[in-house]
Specification:
The longest helix has about 40 residues. It is built from six helices and four strands. It is α+β, with helices and mostly antiparallel strands and about 200 residues long.
Length: about 200
């Protein structure tokens, strides 16, 4: 009897809260990625993520409903939710999915920066504009997020004091991109392509 009671306590107060905590991390992480994919217009991926998100959530909430007297499950549920948000954002940053636009403001040598960006595999366009005190050159370049760091290195090497802004781009039609680094919108597309070649 004592052994059975002891094992029951372990399940109720240790194993079950841990499982709820991990389940919440999984479903919230997936939910965070789903929202990001929806915002980027990835309609083929978001429904799949939504299916698994809800499936895991139903499993976790059903366990809580079966153990309403165990308040430690509530703490595990809330802690898993908070941790899942953080994990989801970290995963999204590591995947670096999407396309972004860099808008650079420089006082002169706009075409020179365009040439340098082009030589590094980035398409760029420059236009002249009027600032508060003088004429400026606006240089636009569209890059994949996994190439953002390299693009900023090129810009900062050209002018360490250059002012620039970065914005998300939902979609592009045509442009100059490095074919080897293009992001297809699905993180494991490269692996799938290699698998298909081998068949």
């Amino acid at each position: 009897m004592e052994t059975s009671f002891f094992n029951s306590d372990i399940v109720s107060y240790v194993i079950m809260p841990i499982l709820i905590f991990l389940a919440r991390i999984c479903d919230v992480s997936i939910g965070t990625l789903r929202i990001i994919f929806v915002s980027k217009g990835k309609r083929n991926i978001a429904p799949i993520l939504g299916f698994f998100e809800v499936l895991i959530w139903i499993t976790a909430i059903s366990k809580i409903m079966q153990n309403l007297d165990d308040y430690i499950n509530y703490v595990a549920y809330a802690a898993g939710f908070a941790t899942g948000n953080l994990v989801g954002m970290i995963i999204e940053e590591k995947l670096a999915i999407g396309i972004q636009m860099i808008r650079i403001f420089i006082s002169e040598k706009g075409m020179e920066l365009v040439t340098i960006l082009n030589s590094n595999g980035f398409g760029a366009t420059t236009v002249e504009a009027h600032g508060a005190k003088e004429k400026v050159h606006l240089v636009y370049t569209i890059v994949h997020r996994n190439e953002m760091e390299k693009a900023l290195e090129v810009i900062n090497a050209f002018n360490p004091r250059a002012f620039y802004t970065i914005e998300d781009v939902r979609a592009v039609n045509e442009g100059i991109f490095n074919p080897r680094r293009q992001n297809s919108g699905f993180p494991f597309a490269g692996i799938l392509r290699e698998w298909r070649k081998g068949k």
